[in-house]
Write a structure and sequence with these properties.
81 residues; alpha+beta; Glutaredoxin; 4-stranded mixed β-sheet; 23% strand
Length: 81
C-alpha cells in the first residue's frame, strides 16, 4: 500500500504525517508513507486544500486532519483492495 501525505509543511501537514505513521505502525499495515511537498505535484493530484491524503493513488480527503479513528478506518479499509 502506498500512502501519500500532501502538503507544503504547515502545522496540519506535519500533524497528519505523524498521525499516518503512528496508525501504520500500530495497525502493522504494510505501507509506504510518502510526504509530498512539491506544489506542482500536489495540484496535479487534485489537492486544492492541504493537507491531503492519498491511498494507492486515490484522494481520500483534503483540507483537514481526520481523527485517529477515521484514519485507522480509511487505511484498514484499503488493505484488501
Amino acid at each position: 500500500m502506498e500512502i501519500k501525505v500532501l502538503g507544503t509543511g504547515c502545522k496540519k501537514c506535519k500533524q497528519l504525517e505523524e498521525l499516518v505513521k503512528e496508525v501504520v505502525k500500530e495497525t502493522k499495515v504494510d505501507a509506504e508513507v510518502i510526504k509530498v511537498t512539491d506544489i506542482k505535484a500536489i495540484v496535479e493530484a487534485g489537492i486544492m486544500l492541504t493537507p491531503g491524503l492519498m491511498i494507492d493513488g486515490k484522494v481520500k480527503f483534503t483540507g483537514k486532519v481526520p481523527s485517529k479513528a477515521d484514519l485507522v478506518k480509511m487505511i484498514t479499509e484499503n488493505i484488501s483492495k
